[in-house]
Amino acid sequence: MIETIETLLSNFERGKLTRRQLALSLSALVAAAQAAPQEKSFRAVSINHVTVKVPDLHRTSNFYRQFFGMPLKQQSANTHILGGRASGRRPPGPLRLWNRRLQRR
Length: 105
Fold this sequence. Notes:
Layout: H1 2-13, H2 19-35, E1 50-54, H3 57-68, E2 72-75, E3 79-82, E4 95-99
Parallel strand pairs: 1-4
Antiparallel strand pairs: 2-3, 3-4
């Protein structure tokens, strides 16, 4: 819809549309958008897991563990997996920190 409006305005500025034609076109565009069936949007209810690529794995891992109280569940040379704290009905999924400097190319 934004592209259509930009095209209409551009055509008006170049003299390809009169002011009346622009007003009628914009009105028709709005009416069509209001009449079109609305898409149902998704609503997030939880997060399963998050992966974050970080430049300093140990520093970032220490931050999340100390600041958020997330325990270290698993670790390897280039990955730390931190557990979430329970809140509400279900505990959040794990946070995976991945050292982007050690990634394979």
